[in-house]
Request: fold
Amino acid sequence: MQEHKLGTHDCIQLVPIFNQLTTVELQQVSAIVHEHVYEKGTTLFNAGDEANQLTIIAAGQAKVYQLATNGREQLLYLLQSGDFDGEAALFNPVTRTSYAEALVPTQVCSIQRSDFQALLAEAPQLALGILNEFGKRISQLEGKATSVTTSSIGGRLADYLVETAASFPAQTMFTLPLQKKEIAVYLGTTPETISRKLNEFQIAGWLKKGHGNQIAVLDADQLALQD
Amino acid sequence: MQEHKLGTHDCIQLVPIFNQLTTVELQQVSAIVHEHVYEKGTTLFNAGDEANQLTIIAAGQAKVYQLATNGREQLLYLLQSGDFDGEAALFNPVTRTSYAEALVPTQVCSIQRSDFQALLAEAPQLALGILNEFGKRISQLEGKATSVTTSSIGGRLADYLVETAASFPAQTMFTLPLQKKEIAVYLGTTPETISRKLNEFQIAGWLKKGHGNQIAVLDADQLALQD
DNA sequence: TTACATACTTGATTCGGATCAAGTTTACTT
DNA sequence: AAGTAAACTTGATCCGAATCAAGTATGTAA
Reply:
């Protein structure tokens, strides 16, 4: 069973920032991409490492944690296929402040800074795609920063659920990709509160809890209206 | 008195993303930059506008507000000389979700999307500089998103004060650039709480309140240690 | 200088959500 | 299938900060 393994060319096509490239440019990119498969539970990179490369998830899933000053870890991103991290490394050597761990067997494409900079001079179109992707990410983060100071916990959880459920058929049961403890940390709250809010939502008829970490969103519209 | 007015060339040199350009490239950029001066209290752009340009503050100061779903306004940025906004517009036509107002007479440089894209193809070095700046902004926003879910109000206020005080000589009185009401909204709290926390900080000996909106930070190190 | 509006402060009360402390379920190991 | 550890739930209590309600400064216009 290795359906999730892909050739280099396919790998690159999965990444949004490379979507707009011509065939020729795609080949140029292929030439400088390195591939690696990480087993479940292994570390993609560590805090304190010097970062010299862009890391792209071709297939699989990884969690990125930031270490807070008090030693606590804050989940920063849940990287899915096509997501990337470490873009700052493409311009300057930086020390990573976060670390990442593979949740499942995960195939990663990486690009070295020096290779990337050389390529950029030849394929300006590439820069546009990346800039575009960065712009999106900034909007997203601005939204998060706003919503965190603006909405209540209930609202943030509701948003998270609607967003997560979006990748599954409507009204069907699915397994939450994160444990409640992790969702809690991600939203800046506690597992207890997550538990209680999910109950409230179920009583309101907006969702249905199943076995283990399964839920079905019944009324995404009402959920989204929370706060 | 027009010391704050600058020629186009000077204007561009103020902007970090253009810092690394060669003289030739700077001239190319100069050619496509439009300048405009907004009087105090006038609107730079409005929510709902279609954005087709990058807006750079050459001299002056502007507030950028985001409208929340409940109709409340959330202060997003306080733009100073050299800051820019609307970078998403450089890649796709977008509708603005925020609006900006000049706090003082403010000189603005703007670049149209079409001009920018044409330029980018000729000056790849420019893309690198912008990408770099974007990377920094993303780190900054990641930090803010983390600190908001992690620290208490006191900690966030302390950070804000230390940051704001940094542009004044140490331990001297200065006037806060925002009203307390606005600081409150910015930090996601209320004027009452700001008032109380400032008292606590004064009693602890970390700052001194003066007349009106003046304060002096006495012990930035202790403040920064808050939470 | 007085009058008025706006910003700010202070106190009393309320409330959301964190924390603490058991239980209970789920999932993994053998 | 039984045993164990981890994750989850539920209840009781506590605390930080929001809200409500006066007040007091500050600044502005006549």
